[in-house]
Design goal:
The complex is a heterodimer. Chain A is 44% helix and 12% strand. Chain A is of the alpha+beta class. Chain B is an all-alpha fold. The chains are: A alpha+beta, B mainly alpha.
């Protein structure tokens, strides 16, 4: 069997049953590929043992880039490159530069974070997703188990574990 | 496992299942547009084309076609600019601030409110753009670009330039936030199109959804992004109207030079924005039969926000009057005396009636739960908020320091046409949105369905 091609797919109707099932399936030694849900289920990341995302750090770094860029731009342009007397004020005074600095901080932070999210989640407009079950965006939670990763267990054993964990359906899915 | 709250009213009525939610919201995207939609869209296009003609005349002849004169250099254009920006604020308040406060009732209304924000900001931005006269040179005047004058940079001390950055950042971040919310819902429509065998729609909505799959890891990141975007948008939305108010507050014109402006403008913005959300949603829920998602309870909660912000605005008006007397500055005193008693007193008192008195009617439960009363009052509030900006802008400058410069402002057909143009943009965009995009955030509604919906 080739890796990433043959899967057992468990369908769950209810998010609380699903959370319980993830714990059961993982404790019985089956490695879960991913769980697909129509809406964010709270606590699913802990149940699956995912580490917290580092996107907030990315947002902070992009934000700081914006702050520095805005300050350098304004101080250089009005303070050094072409100093002009405006209302008798200092050439490079900080208070009037705060609004633009704030706006550019927010802008770069937001765009940078969303861009990072798109890249790490591999989201592209021309990508057709590998769907384990078409209902996973509608009303079902779909648990995918890669058989190649769980080579120590037979297909029937995995199916039995998923069924006992509360799946309303257990199917097989293969990709060409 | 059913979790039903005994103390809270259900947010979604009519014993919906997850499948019903997908069906009810996607249905209007999948079906053919109704005759009512075509009629509404046609009217919007008519407004847009008439407005486009007026814009063309403005660009061809210059802003002399407007009714501005040497005393009143700012009038309808800036009034409309501030009015539209203000309307935009409610969308961000609903989607960002209410998210941080964990208010679940926002989930049925945030999509349409954010769309309204984006379209309103486009309308707003068009006014300062056209007021520049030569729109095509606007890039050089408004952005710090090297230019033929030897890199004479823009003036970062000017609140008008702060506006450029505030409005463009606000537009971009709102657009990104709104689009992030749409991604999972586009995937719902894509998968329904696959089941229905509509290949073109499946491909189109897949592209729009960036190949969304809804894996747990992606959802985890997605929620983190949404929370941080809300955290960024909250100070952003407050900063935008603060900076808009700086256009006036940092000047030395009596009636504008007021420290109360930033909070007063923000409250007014949310006030008018909620009124516009109500106007739009009351029509949308009727046309698309979404009464079980946008319930009377939602409408009541929005009306309560209108009472609060309307009262803040009322207190601000009274504080302004009091301070103009208490400060003993004759110019300030005259500016306000002239507002209340002068030739524009009719505008001042229309503003007072619409903004201070009319929202107080919502203290009566029967009125704030009545659809008809809410619809009428929401329009009255927006008329009042338009007058507020007009009163602040025109009455403060039409009686200059020298009585020989005293004058009145009379709008021309092109002032009106420019305003109509933005209504054309706004409604055309909103009707296209309502037809091709899911008007309610399905993923969020599904996530609260178990705990806050009506049970069989």
């Amino acid at each position: 069997m080739d890796a990433d091609k043959h899967f057992v797919v468990g369908i769950y109707d209810d998010e609380d049953v699903l959370l319980d099932a993830i714990r059961k399936v993982r404790s019985s030694g089956v490695k879960i590929q991913e769980v697909y849900s129509p809406f964010p289920v709270h606590g699913i990341d802990e149940a699956l043992g995912y580490k917290r995302t580092r996107l907030p750090i990315a947002a902070f770094l992009f934000g700081m880039t914006g702050t520095i860029l805005a300050l350098v731009m304004q101080i250089w342009m009005l303070g050094y490159d072409w100093p002009m007397i405006i209302g008798g004020k200092n050439f490079a005074s900080l208070p009037p530069f705060i609004p633009v600095t704030f706006e550019l901080t927010v802008l770069l932070s937001a765009l940078g974070m969303v861009g990072t999210f798109m890249i790490v989640s591999d989201m592209k407009p021309y990508k057709w997703p590998r769907q384990f079950d078409i209902r996973s965006t509608d009303d079902k939670h779909v648990m995918a188990v890669d058989l190649a990763v769980n080579a120590s267990k037979s297909k029937d054993e995995v199916k039995r574990i998923l069924k006992e964990s509360g799946a309303s359906e257990v199917n097989e899915k293969s990709f060409e | 496992m059913q979790v039903v709250s005994a103390i809270r009213e259900p947010l979604i009525t009519g014993t919906k299942t997850l499948k019903d939610v997908s069906h009810d919201i996607s249905r209007q995207v999948e079906g053919k547009p109704t005759r009512l939609w075509w009629m509404a869209f046609g009217v919007s296009l008519a407004l847009l084309s008439w407005g486009a003609y007026c814009c063309w005349m403005l660009l061809w002849h210059g802003i002399g076609v407007w009714g501005l004169n040497k005393t009143v250099g700012w009038a309808w254009d800036i009034t409309n600019f501030v009015w539209w920006v203000g309307i935009g604020h409610a969308g961000t308040l609903i989607s960002a601030i209410l998210l941080l406060f964990r208010q679940r009732w926002r989930m049925s209304i945030n999509r349409a409110a954010e769309a309204m924000t984006i379209f309103a900001v486009i309308c707003a931005a068009s006014f300062p753009g056209f007021h520049m006269g030569r729109l095509w040179l606007g890039f050089y005047w408004a952005l710090p670009l090297p230019n033929t004058f030897g890199s004479l940079w823009v003036n970062f001390n000017s609140p008008l330039l702060w506006d450029v950055f505030a409005i463009s950042t606000y537009f971009t971040v709102s657009l990104v936030f709104w689009y992030m919310g749409l991604i999972p819902d586009f995937a719902v429509i894509r998968d329904r199109a696959v089941v229905q065998g509509n290949k073109i729609r499946a491909l189109a909505y897949n592209a729009l959804s960036f190949g969304w799959q809804g894996g747990a890891k992606t959802w985890m990141r997605y929620e983190s992004v949404a929370l941080i975007l809300a955290g960024l948008s909250t100070p952003l939305v407050l900063s935008v109207h603060t900076i808009v108010s700086f256009d006036f507050a940092t000047s030395v014109i009596p009636g504008w030079h007021t420290t109360i402006f930033p909070p007063y403008f923000v409250a007014g913005a949310i006030f008018s924005g909620f009124a516009m959300v109500l106007t739009l949603l009351l029509v949308t829920r009727k046309v698309f039969k979404l009464e079980q998602y946008i319930t009377v309870y939602h409408i009541e909660l929005m009306n309560i926000i209108i009472i609060i912000t309307g009262s803040i605005v009322g207190i601000a008006y009274i504080t302004e009057l009091f301070i103009s007397w208490y400060s003993r500055v004759p110019y300030e005193g005259y500016a306000f005396y002239n507002r209340v008693q002068g030739p524009y007193a009719w505008a001042y008192w229309s503003m007072m009636t619409c903004n201070v008195i009319s929202p107080q009617l919502f203290w009566i439960k029967k009125i704030r739960t009545s659809i008809v009363a809410t619809f009428v009052l929401s329009i009255i509030v927006n008329i009042g908020m338009w007058f507020e900006r007009f009163v602040i802008i025109v009455t403060s400058i039409h009686r200059d320091y020298i009585p020989s410069s005293w004058t009145m402002f009379y709008p021309t057909m092109y002032d009106v046409g420019q305003y109509i143009f933005t209504f054309g943009i706004f409604f055309t965009a909103f009707f296209l949105f309502a037809k091709f995009f899911p008007v309610i955030n399905m993923a969020e509604v599904k996530s609260i369905l178990k705990s806050t919906s009506e049970k069989k």
